[in-house]
Amino acid sequence: MSMLKKIPEEMIEKVRKANDIVDVIGEYVQLKKQGRNYFGLCPFHGEKTPSFSVTPEKQIFYCFGCKKGGNVLTFLMELENYSFLEAVKILAEKSGIDLPETNTTEETSLSLENQNILSAHNWLTKLYHHLLRYTQDGKEGYEYLKSRGINDDSIDQFELGFSPAVKGFTADFLEGKGFHQQLLVKAGLLNLLDDNSIVDRFAGRIIFPIRNHLGKTVAFGGRTVTGQHPKYINSSESELFQKNRLLFNFDLAKRHIRKESEVILFEGQMDVISAYQAGVKNVVATLGTSLTDNQAKLLKRYVDTVILCYDGDQAGINASFKAANLLRQVGCKVKIANLGENSDPDSYISEFGVDSFKKNIIQASDTYTSFYMRYVKKDYNLNVEADRIQYIHQILKQLAMIDSSVEREHYLNDLSEEFNLSIETLKDEVHAERKKIKHKHNGEQNRYTRSTSKLRQQNRLLPAYQNAERFLIAYMLEDQLVSDRVQKEIGVDFTMDEHKVIATHLYAYYEEVETSDVSMFIDRLEDDNIRQLVIEIAMLPILNDISNQEISDYINIIQAQKRNIAILNDYREQQRLAEQENDPIKAATIALNIIAIERQLKNTK
Ligand SMILES: [Zn+2]
Fold first, then answer.
1. Same structural domain for residues 587 and 480?
2. Looking only at Cα atoms, what is the longest distance across the chain?
3. Hey, which of 88, 204, 307, 482 would disulfide with 165, CB 3.0 to 4.6 Å?
4. Residue 107 pLDDT class (50, 70, 90 cuts)
């Protein structure tokens, strides 16, 4: 691999050894130990039941669903779109390893244009922050933040800033740094007006830098302090800034989310900042749009429980309902904070303090079911009997979906008290509903088992020689002695082309390295498909101690297959000649032989 030449291989090994794959992937995927492996939801394809596995012994990951697999470096390359070098650098930094300077130009997965856009954001963040914090030009912004209870530490931590309402300020500053106007318009930092004049997009606004999950500022949010409309704007979307994929503060909140095993989701960036300042740090926010499927899935990869803490007004409640359903769809447990009408998280914290926020809002947040009972009430006039009955029916349907009988009974009691109904009647109704659901559910389960057993069958249906080759390679990957023996006896004479390629690389690898290490081995493979296949093979269940006899059996199967194929080819050639010579009897005899061999080939399945 040409990339390896830039950093010595021992160095890459050192970096890899210092970063356990379980820890690194654990930052992206919630992993649970099961036997010798860890399992979680695959970050590469959508799924609700975990089929993504990490094997610490081999330092590899593999998804049984989409079949993606690799080592810690390929994981980062796939997920973050890093180049090989970038992935090595990130891990080296993490583990405090100094890499030797590479003379080659920096290899990065970002286009030059995007690198420039990042750099422009970086400059501006520092400039705006400086202005707000230390100068007269930013005083309005600073005072506004103070009035909202934001302290200097938070202003520094979030690098809040101010863009002065001075015509051409941003444009001049960045052009002075050598950035082209066109690029800045494209990056959404400047606005191009109809008359072709340029204005600063955020002039007169407090700047909230929006960082991606790697901590790089990719966009700004701007809040007016001069009464402009709209009150709040974000950068326009770009390749680097996709509102439906990012969550505000995710980079800082990540480790707190993991520690607390839950995340609090807000609608506003101010909510995040004031909660964070008050010490509640597992907090993120959407960016002015409703929660998207992408964001829900991102959260699900990190935690099981999401607490929605939206504004207490009707709009906030409606948004909560939508977000809650989306999160439940991706498999999250959802709780909904109840702030009461006319309140939002930021004002609640400044009015009642963080202790009350934690105790009376977060800890006291509603389960989805009680929120649902409250939420759907608004659609009914409960003073009217027909409405009341319909409401109760809707709630019973919802309760029927709860599997825990204790939990169900808890809500049924509430309902029975509220509407003065006998608990027995309500229970009967829920039972009837559950029967209906069970019916539907069973159908689904059958579909699922059918598809998985089909998958298993497909595996079993691989021809014997192909299985023999795969298992043999699996043992070769684990044990150099096996590899040496196979090299001597069959060399690269496998029947499958991919297997030939793997064997060739493996022999070369052992010649140099002399210890088995799948994770290290795959870095030498440039072809993605071959790499995937090696990981897939490395995941085959093999014995700790394989006897020589078993190895011989595999080799025999492969050699027999090779022989039969050679004979078959030979017959086909003879058949061609016989046809050329116009000898139908000879051709027919050969055809019979071919059929016999083909039957034999089939029987080795
Ligand atoms: Zn997958």
1. yes
2. 104
3. 204
4. low
Domain extent, residue 332, equals 250-363
Looking at 94, 121, 146, which one is the last position of a domain? 94
Q: Does residue 139 belong to any structural domain of this protein?
A: yes
- 359 falls within a domain: yes
What is the 3-state composition of the chain as percent helix, strand, coil, each rounded to the nearest 5? 60, 10, 30
CA–centroid distance, 47 to ligand 1, in Å, is 8
For residue 534, give the 3-state DSSP assignment.
helix
Q: What is the CATH number of the domain that holds 68?
A: 3.90.580.10
Please indicate, yes or no, whether residues 338 and 397 belong to a single structural domain of this protein. no
What pLDDT is stored for residue 317 in this prediction?
Answer: 92
* Residue, of 446 and 69, whose pLDDT is higher: 69
Q: How far is the CA of 262 from the centre of ligand 1 (A)?
A: 24
Q: Tens digit of pLDDT for each residue in 144-156?
A: 999 999 999 999 9
Q: How many Å lie between the centroid of ligand 1 and the Cα of residue 50?
A: 9
CA of 45 to the centre of ligand 1 (A): 5
Do residue 209 and residue 305 come from a single domain? no
Same domain, 171 and 259: no
H or E element, residue 388: helix 385-400
Look up residue 552 and give its two tokens: 């011989």
Q: Which letter does DSSP use for residue 228 in this model?
A: -
Ligand 1 centroid vs 43 CA: distance in angstroms? Answer: 7
Measured in Å, residue 192 CA sits from the centre of ligand 1 at 43
CA–centroid distance, 534 to ligand 1, in Å, is 16
User: What is the whole-number distance in angstroms between the Cα of residue 41 and the centre of ligand 1?
Assistant: 8
Question: How many angstroms is it from 67 CA to the middle of ligand 1?
Answer: 6
324 CA → ligand 1 middle, Å? 25
Give me ligand 1 centre to Cα 532, in Å. 12
CA 483–ligand 1 middle distance (angstroms): 30
Q: CATH no. for residue 567?
A: 1.10.860.10
On whether both 442 and 472 belong to a single domain, the answer is: no
Ligand 1 centre distance from Cα of residue 75 (Å): 12
State whether 508 and 582 are in the same domain: yes
Count the neighbouring beta carbons within 10 Å of the beta carbon of residue 511.
10
What's the structural domain count of the chain?
5
Nearest Cα to 226, choosing from 140, 147, 159?
140
Dist. CA 256–CA 250, nearest whole Å: 10
Question: Domain with 308 in it: what CATH number?
Answer: 3.40.1360.10
- How far away, in angstroms, is 539 Cα from ligand 1 center? 14
Mean pLDDT of 531-559: 89
On whether both 217 and 285 belong to a single domain, the answer is no
Flag whether pLDDT at 379 surpasses 50: yes
User: Of the candidates 52, 67, 94, which is a domain's last residue?
Assistant: 94
pLDDT score for 2 = 44
Show the tokens assigned to 399.
């309760």
3-state secondary structure of 61: strand
Question: Does residue 245 lie in a domain region?
Answer: no
70 Cα to the center of ligand 1, angstroms? 12
Q: How far is the CA of 51 from the centre of ligand 1 (A)?
A: 7
pLDDT at position 361, please?
Answer: 94
Q: Does 100 reside within a domain?
A: no
Q: What is the pTM of this model?
A: 0.70
Q: Do 431 and 474 reside in the same domain of the chain?
A: no
Contact 564, 485 (CB under 8 A): no
Residues composing the chain: 605
